[in-house]
Amino acid sequence: MNFHVMTLFPEMIENAMGHSIIGRAMKAGYVSLEAVNIRDFADNKHNRVDDYPYGGGAGMVMQAEPVYRCYEDIINRMECPESSFPRVIYLTPQGRVFDQDMAREYAGEEELIFLCGHYEGVDERVLNRIVTDYVSIGDYVLTGGELPALVMMDTISRLIPGVLNNDDSAETESFADSLLEYPQYTRPAVWQGEEVPSVLLSGHHKNLQEWYRRQSVIRTAQRRPDLLKKADLTPEEQELVQEIIEGMTDKQTTRVE
Ligand code: 6GU
Hints:
Layout: E1 2-7, H1 10-17, H2 20-27, E2 32-37, E3 50-51, E4 61-62, H3 64-78, E5 87-97, H4 100-106, E6 111-116, H5 124-130, E7 133-136, H6 146-157, E8 190-191, E9 194-195, H7 199-202, H8 205-223, H9 235-247, H10 250-254
Parallel strand pairs: 1-2, 1-6, 5-6, 5-7
Antiparallel strand pairs: 3-4, 8-9
The structure holds 6-chloroguanine.
């Protein structure tokens, strides 16, 4: 996967991607990243890339031309036919809300271009010209698209074969089948008087798998019952979910209604 990020803060992107699992994936060549500074494509000697909004109002708007030149620079260096131009993701709270299914789809692409806006937005004309996907990371407002781009790249990268140590760990985790992950424990077996669930010490494979599944269902019912609409539950599991939901206080359930 080759990520290209158009941004006014390339160091923010490069720094955040240099660590831990993603940093290792980049060194190993599973993922590459270039952060391209939109300011390098300013058309004036002051390197300004924003201006006042037509019609007035608060804040500044990023101009179309520097963004377009930055995009052209990336595309020209890629030497791909127009028919296979990569998707261009504009990070905006007005976009479709990013989720694990979208991450899986993006992970199948060879190249992805992200456009990080700042100020009050980006001139609509260049968005119409180059953007293929409008994506948000949730219903709250950030100061720019850099953090959302990083969130997306982290999520997508770990789905690329080879990036995680264990090939199947990406798909056994939370959301894999619309269920949250079961609780985890490590040594010591007793911590401050609290024991690890005994099934985990038994080494009994079938009992373990059943316990994992049941814990995932319980946890999802307690914390994210909204996810269960997409989950494939047995009749017994559906009964378990009903009991948990009926047993919850109003305070516990209001969060999800
Ligand atoms: Cl993608 N951008 C900004 N500025 N704020 C956001 C967002 C994106 N997603 C949620 N809030």
